[in-house]
């Protein structure tokens, strides 16, 4: 019995070594991707800050992210924005996504999957494709609004007040049952709605669903980022921290409400400042 037990233990140890090595490769690759995307985002923000923004009625500046620069065509400007958006979202979402992908790898590894790591890559690709689609929708809306603001001084003067109102309302959204449900979907364990399938198509669809759930859950915080400044590093850091905490903290719903209270206070402060400057 002792010899049999020893043999079984050795076989289990041999199975654990590749799994541990694969886990370290996964974590190392994720860390490298985060560092590269964060560095690229910081450099891009510094470049945009150096260009400044267009002074607008009401004492604020319109970000160059919504305008063409250096003789760009509109398709070129859209491609530049989309690339910037994809890199930025990679840096912002990876801290909360990596633990989810790790749980997915562990869950699908308990099935008959031969390459759970590659399936996790497909999940991540589907996830970020959904966020890239959001950027593709945001750019034309942002440029259209920027064009209207440049042509309508009265509307431009109301922007600081409107930004405060959006931040306040999105803070209130954090207290709703809808937000709690969306957050629960994002925090759910992989395969909670049914058995995980160890197939590329299933992994891709899982990534798309995960991305859609994340977009809905982060809608309020994303709106806050857009109205405060899509290329504002402080806003990005704050939103990243908020998303990560409400996803990973033990009491996620309570954290979400705390974030909502902070956003409501910030929105009220912005409204007061806008009223005072007006």
TrEMBL record:
It holds the Pfam family PpoB2. It comes from the Bacteria. It comes from Rhodanobacter ginsengisoli. The keyword Transmembrane applies. The chain crosses the membrane at residues 24-54, 74-98, 118-142, 154-173, 210-231, 255-275. This is DUF2182 domain-containing protein. The keyword Transmembrane applies. Keywords: Membrane, Transmembrane, Transmembrane helix.
């Amino acid at each position: 019995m002792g010899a049999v037990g020893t043999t079984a233990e050795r076989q289990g140890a041999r199975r654990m070594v590749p799994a541990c090595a694969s886990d370290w490769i996964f974590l190392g690759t994720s860390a490298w991707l985060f560092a590269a995307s964060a560095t690229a985002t910081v450099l891009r923000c510094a470049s945009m800050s150096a260009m400044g923004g267009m002074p607008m009625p009401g004492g604020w500046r319109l970000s160059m992210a919504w305008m063409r620069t250096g003789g760009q065509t509109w398709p070129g400007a859209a491609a530049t924005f989309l690339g910037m958006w994809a890199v930025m979202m990679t840096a912002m979402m990876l801290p909360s996504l990596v633990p989810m992908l790790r749980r997915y790898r562990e869950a699908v590894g308990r099935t008959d999957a031969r390459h759970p790591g590659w399936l996790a890559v497909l999940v991540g690709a589907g996830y970020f494709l959904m966020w890239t689609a959001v950027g593709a929708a945001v750019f034309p809306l942002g440029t259209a609004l920027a064009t209207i603001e440049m042509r309508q001084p009265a509307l431009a003067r109301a922007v600081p007040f409107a930004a405060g109102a959006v931040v306040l309302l999105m803070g209130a959204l954090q207290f709703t049952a809808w937000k709690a449900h969306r957050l629960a979907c994002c925090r759910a364990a992989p395969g909670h709605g049914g058995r995980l399938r160890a197939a590329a198509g299933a992994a891709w669809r899982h990534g798309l669903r995960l991305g859609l759930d994340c977009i809905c859950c982060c809608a309020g915080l994303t709106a806050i980022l857009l109205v405060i400044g899509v290329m504002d590093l402080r806003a990005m850091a704050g939103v990243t921290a908020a998303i990560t905490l409400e996803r990973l903290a033990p009491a996620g719903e309570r954290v979400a409400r705390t974030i909502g209270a902070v956003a409501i206070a910030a929105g009220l402060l912005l409204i007061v400042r806008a009223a005072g400057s007006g």
